[in-house]
Amino acid sequence: MKLLTQEIRKKLPALGGQEDKGGKAIVQVKFFTPDSSWTWYTTEFDGEDTFFGLVDGHEKELGYFSLSELESVNGPMGLPIERDLYWQPKTLQEIAPEMFKD
């Protein structure tokens, strides 16, 4: 599966493009490991390799992650990271309300 299509690239704001929105930043893409609990929620992209968004792994945290890394990593059972084909855009606040309390 191709993790990032041209159509999705066009939808993703540039890095820093939603910086002032906080929890109201829109997550356009969700990546996940089908054989573990790690999930990456993407809000911004530099157009080359670097994403910004919410990483839900051992803890939930905002940060940068790379397309090349997502493409090269496999989960504990050897399965590659996938893109959620049925994902509908949501705000960060909807995904992690505990991180964006007023």
List keywords for this structure.
single chain, 102 residues, globular, two-stranded antiparallel sheet, 16% helix, alpha+beta
Tell me the number of structural domains. Answer: 1
Could you spell the SSE succession in H and E letters? HEEEEEHEEH
Low-confidence stretches: none
Overall pLDDT score: 95
The secondary-structure class comes to alpha+beta
For the sheet with most strands, the description reads: 5 strands, antiparallel
The strand count comes to 7
Residues in helices, as a percent range? 10-25%
Globally, the shape reads globular
Strand content: 25-35%
* Computed Rg: 13 Å
Strand order in the sheet with the most strands: 5-4-3-2-6
Total count of helical runs of at least 4 residues: 3
Could you tell me how far the N terminus lies from the C terminus, measured between alpha carbons in angstroms? 38 Å
Question: Would you mind describing this structure in some detail?
Answer:
The chain has 102 residues and is an alpha+beta fold. It has one domain (6-15, 26-97). Helix content is 16%, strand content 30%. The longest helix is centred in the N-terminal third of the chain and has 6 residues, at 6-11. It starts with 5 loop residues before the first helix and ends in a 7-residue tail after the last helix. The mean pLDDT is 95.
Concise summary:
With 102 residues, the chain is of the alpha+beta class.
Per-chain topology:
Blueprint: H1 6-11, E1 26-27, E2 29-32, E3 39-45, E4 50-56, E5 60-66, H2 67-72, E6 82-83, E7 90-91, H3 92-95
Antiparallel strand pairs: 1-7, 2-3, 2-6, 3-4, 4-5
